[in-house]
Each structure stands twice: as structure tokens, then as C-alpha cells.
Amino acid sequence: VLRTLSTSDDVEDRETEKGRLEEAYEKCDRDLDELIVQHYTELTTAIRTYQSITERITNSRNKIKQVKENLLSCKMLLHCKRDELRKLWIEGIEHKHVLNLLDEIENIKQVPQKLEQCMASKHYLNATDMLVSAVDSLEGPLLQVEGLSDLRLELHSKKMNMHLVLIDELHRHLYIKSTNRVGQRNKEKGRISSLVKDASSVPLMDVTNLSTPRKFLETSQFSTPGSSSMRETSLLEIKEDMELDPEENSTVFMGILIKGLAKLKKIPETVKAIQDRLEQELKQIVKRSTTQVADNGYQRGENISQENQPR
């Protein structure tokens, strides 16, 4: 419109153009009014629909904004809860550890009494396991417990002297128990031979079938590698039955003693003690055997004299 008016040469052309434009404008208004009258219902519905849509969009934006704010606050609260839960979890672990330590302390307090019972019943392997584990606990996790200092010293001294008892038991079975069985077999044969009238026959000591420690060692020394490994496995698998007499099987009992000494880490001291006492123990065996032979001979002489003089 401005370009048309500015390009006009005179006022009349401008007025003419202006009138034409006003007429067209009025015609457009009339047409618009007619269209509004014709489509008033649809227009009103569209306007209302647009207004409701605008309101819903605005409400949705406000709700989303509120949700974002709530999510941020939840995130902050969850961070706080996570820290609190982690703290409670750590406290739970600490309490559980404290309870385990208290249970262990209660069990360790009963060790001296149980140890005396096991030593009295000669269940040395169980006693050794109990003593070693108790000393390890007292010198490890319970080292800072001042109330257990006396018990720690007591059990430590018992552990230091435990191998002496085991070595004495090992020597008793190694030298005394095995030779006592030979002596008992000899006495039985002596009683049988005393019933025979031939006094010239002397009872012999048949030790070929006895399971002596010497034969026990020889079977592993001169056996094949496969059987030797089986022998070592059986020694490692030796277990102590608390219901049975531990000295019933002398060979198994000596294996238990050696296993206990190994747990105490006193095998070198054991070997040295056996080497030091070997000559003395063998002399004692000869002395006991001589006494038994002399007693048997004296008894046979008494029996022969009584047969010759019935009164």
C-alpha cells in the first residue's frame, strides 16, 4: 500500500487508490463478519477447545516442574538414607564381629577344663587341636583383650610343655607297651610249657606276628612307592574317636601322638628326645626282659621241685 501511494504522481491517484483500498477493506470486513455469523458455533467450540488445551498444557508444565522438584528432593533424601544405611550396615558388621569375639572368649574360658578332661582320658589329638587354636586366637584377634592375659600365659605355658607329655606317651608305647605284649605272650607260653613234663624245653618268644613299631616302620620303608603314598595318606587321615579307648590300638595311638607333635611344631625336639633316650630305653628293655626270663625260670624250677616232691 505504501509503495502504491508513494509511486502515485498526484493527489487524485492517491485518493483513488486509497478509496479502492478502503472499499476492499470494508468488503473483507463484511465477508469476515458473514463467515463469523455462519461459523459462530464452530468458532466458539474451537476457541474453547484451544483455551482448554492451553490450560491443560500449562497445568502439565506446572506438574512436571513440581515432579522435577520432588525428584530432586527424593534424590537428596536417598543420598542421606544411603549414608545412614551404610552406617547401620557397618555397625551391624561390627556388632556381629563383637558377638563372635565374645563367643570365642566364652569358649576359650572353658578350654582349661576341657583340656584337663581330654588329657585325663588321653585324647591327645583333640586336646592339641583345642590348645593350638586357643593360643592362636589369644595371640591373634584377642591379643588386645587385657582380661585374658592370665589365661593367655597359662595356655601358652601348657602349649610349651604339652610336647613333653606326648613324647613320654610315645616312649611308653614305643618301648614299654610293645615289649609288655611280648612278655605277656611269653608268660602264656611259659604257663603252657610248664604243664609239659619235658623240663628241657625252654619257652621261646615268638614275635613274628606282633605288630611292633619296628615292623610298622619297615612296611612303609620297604614297600612300593604306591603303597608308601597310601601309608602316608592313612597317617594323615588318622582321626581320634572320642568314644573309644585311645590306647586300644597302639599303632594308631602313636600316629595320633606324632600328629599332635606335628601340630605343636615339635617334631625336631621329638626326634632329638628319641635319639637321646634311645640307649637308656633299650637298656631298660634288656633289664625288664632279663627280669622276666629270670622270674619265669624261677617259677619253672619251683614247679619242677613241686612235681618231684608232691608234699
How is this structure best described in words?
With 311 residues, the chain is mostly helical. Among the domains are: 1-72, no CATH class; 122-180 and 246-298, no CATH class. The chain contains ten helices and no strands. It has helices spanning 2-7, 11-38, 40-109, 111-120, 124-138, 149-194, 213-221, 225-236, 250-263, 267-308. The protein is rod-shaped. The N and C termini lie far apart (175 Å).
Quick structural summary:
With 311 residues, this protein is an all-alpha fold. Helix content is 81%, strand content 0%.
Topology readout:
Elements (H helix, E strand, L loop, with lengths): L1 H6 L3 H28 L1 H70 L1 H10 L3 H15 L10 H46 L18 H9 L3 H12 L13 H14 L3 H42 L3
Along the chain, the helix and strand elements come as HHHHHHHHHH
Using the alpha-carbon principal axes, give the shape: rod-shaped
The whole-angstrom Rg is: 54 Å
Strand content: under 5%
| Ends apart, CA distance between termini | 175 Å
Task: Tell me how many strands there are.
Answer: 0
Show unreliable segments. 192-208, 215-233
Q: In which range does the helix fraction lie?
A: over 70%
The SS-based structural class is mainly alpha
Question: Number of helical segments?
Answer: 10
Summarize the main sheet: none
What is the overall pLDDT average?
A: 76
